[in-house]
Amino acid sequence: MHETNPVIYFEIPVHDLSRAEKFYTAVFNFKFEKEIIDGYEMSLFPFKESSRGISGALAKGDAYVPTKKGIIIYFKTENMDATLEKVISEGGKILYPKTVNDKLGFVVAEFEDSEGNRIALHQTIS
Q1: What is the CA radius of gyration of the chain?
Q2: 8 and 57 in contact (C-beta within 8 Å)?
Q3: Where is each VOC domain found (predicted)?
Q4: Terminal Cα distance for the chain, rounded
């Protein structure tokens, strides 16, 4: 039996690291730390050891190919409508519209980021 959640880290493939940083900063107000890891350019998302959840990086290199057909990462948001407006204003596209699940108490949506990835949003509702 696992004592922790199974996922600990993610990498989002990008073609243009500075364009992707600009997009994610504008949509989520993230601050990034640039690193070279195993020869690949990375921009690390914020991470606090004491906080719940996982973190990851925007990753550029020949092994990283943006796609709308692979794994879907969910970012939390406190305001789905405002976040989706920022996605659109930054050149992203809505792929799955805001959908409310009253039974389980959340709202989800999916968008295409600046690099062509399918990214999801999750907002808890009360």
Answers
A1: 15
A2: no
A3: 6-124
A4: 31
Instruction: Determine the Cα–Cα distance for residues 27 and 83; give it in Å rounded to an integer.
Output: 6
Name the residue among 115, 36, 34, 113 with its Cα closest to residue 75: 113
Whether 21 and 58 have beta carbons less than 8 Å apart is answered as yes
Residue in the block written with tokens 């959340």: 106
**Are 12 and 58 contacting, i.e. CB atoms less than 8 angstroms apart?**
yes
Q: Is the pLDDT of residue 14 over 90?
A: yes
Per residue in 47-104, pLDDT tens?
Answer: 888 788 899 999 999 999 999 999 999 999 999 999 999 999 999 999 999 999 999 9
Q: Which CATH superfamily is domain 9-124 in?
A: 2,3-Dihydroxybiphenyl 1,2-Dioxygenase, domain 1 (3.10.180.10)
